[in-house]
């Protein structure tokens, strides 16, 4: 664990003992893996871990009075959505050793990319009577650790919603629609939205089962991914600012498009692919089918 040099005393690392994060599934609890290869935005996460805190030693080593209230908290950050927030916050006022179970429930729609789970022990409230070397501000971090979980899956990795297309301007019998808005400098998570028509039960069910897809679900998800990739690449190629030497901000739509292009057309130039798409759309469509490996079973 990397420790920062702080302008106040902090306790030794062994005042907090942690068990590994557990992933709670319908089949029981498992140790949190490094990655979830079948994850998608329809899949919420339920996580749990046990933490033991020697509160007396923590306060004594920080120079805090025995009655100082502390807080143990879990905080999450998702790089794919650029969202973060507190998952749980427990106030600790007792003495001795406290055993706490942290339980975290996260909406899949808020996640994506790399999920970071921070467990922190902080001072609960400002202490005006603190010694010069002791923490005094509310929220002063006394101890922390971080766990990573990479989220990836078969479904396109951007926000989605299941809606009734009959209530929109989209064709009633369309299965899905990918919305792209904003400039290439806009944040990816605010620029892309996959809409699935709830009336198309085959497609809606495929996304419901994306965590454990059946063969028919894999075919549907593959078709959606191929179509989404086509729409995204065509959208990028229509923009003259989309070029090899473009410098888009990290997490932007342009950066996402460049990453997708490099994945689909490694070693090929944007200029060549743009020319092929304009001069021979049918050949370009076939090239894209081959690039996304549509309907292949991994």
Layout of secondary structure:
Elements: E1 16-18, E2 22-25, E3 28-31, E4 35-36, E5 45-54, H1 55-62, E6 70-78, E7 83-92, E8 97-106, E9 114-123, E10 141-151, E11 160-163, E12 176-180, H2 188-191, E13 192-197, H3 201-208, H4 215-237, H5 253-264, H6 270-279, H7 281-292
Parallel strand pairs: 4-10, 11-13
Antiparallel strand pairs: 1-5, 2-3, 2-5, 5-8, 6-7, 6-9, 9-10, 12-13
Notes on the protein architecture:
- By secondary structure, this protein is of the alpha+beta class.
- The protein folds into two domains: 13-151, Immunoglobulin-like, CATH 2.60.40; 160-292, no CATH class.
- Helices cover 26% and strands 30% of the residues.
- Strands 1, 2, 3, 5 and 8 form a five-stranded antiparallel sheet that branches. It has a five-stranded mixed sheet with strand order 4-10-9-6-7, with helices on one face. The chain has a three-stranded mixed sheet with strand order 11-13-12.
- The relative contact order is 0.12.
Any idea how many domains?
A: 2
Question: Which structural class fits the helix and strand makeup?
Answer: alpha+beta
Tell me the β content.
25-35%
General form: elongated
User: Largest sheet at a glance?
Assistant: 5 strands, antiparallel
